[in-house]
Amino acid sequence: MKVPNTHWRLIALAPLVVIAMLSIGNRIGDAGKQDDFGCSGDFGFPPGSAAPRSSPSPTLIFPIEKPDIPVARPDIASPLRDRTALARTNFALTSNGGVASASSSYPGKAPSSAIDGDRKGLNPGKDAFWNSKDGTSPQWFEVDFSGYKTITEIDLFTVQDDYASPVEPYPTMEFTKYGLTGFDVYGWIESGWAPLPWSRRGNKLVWNQLDLSTSPITVSKIKVSCLGSSADSYSRIAELEAWGKPGAKK
Questions:
Q1: Quick check: pTM over 0.85?
Q2: 99, 213, 232, 247, 249 from 88: Cα distances, Å
Q3: Which residue, of 32, 107, 110, 190, has the greatest Cβ tally within 10 A?
Q4: Is residue 218 part of a domain?
Q5: Residue 123 lies in a domain
Q6: Measured distance CA(237)–CA(122) in Å, rounded
Q7: How many C-beta neighbours within 10 Å does residue 227 have?
Q8: In this structure, what CATH number is given to the domain that contains residue 230?
């Protein structure tokens, strides 16, 4: 029996073996590539697609917040207003420890109605806003905080002409009847009442604001000296707000 010559058969198969080894080597090389973080493999990318050489930039869920953008600035329409409001506290609000008092009060219009968070003065006759008992001037309205607070903004909302159906106040809203035409504001420091740089005479705005963001004050209470209205000389405040950062206290 003739024995096959396997020597020549191996020589004939050699090129095929070399091609197969080169193909396997290329596949191993591709799989062994590393990304920018030193990790190897194809990472689940479909065949024929190229894996990214660097990780994509993360998408921000919220925009980067700028510090100390005022919350209720009538002269600034900021898209971050609502977000900034979450970062500050209205220390005059009853739910935040504020306690209101006044020189006098008309029945059904208690001082506490001006620190309840309602800028419009809804439900007249049922503590919608503070109203002095008579038309003598000056009358005073005071809010005592729960300790010393650092205040960066004070907002005073007086009563609208259509007090029976008020709307949300806006910066240029004016009154002609029942709003405060004049007032002065004071802050309590350790030595007593100190005048703040905020006085109005001939006021016609429903929404008035004192911006203290560049020179904050640290006080334990604020007082508004009210000079009445043009219609009947009574003093009225729909809402008084005193804004500051939480934890900023003396």
A1: no
A2: 19, 12, 37, 10, 13
A3: 110
A4: yes
A5: yes
A6: 12
A7: 19
A8: 2.60.120.260
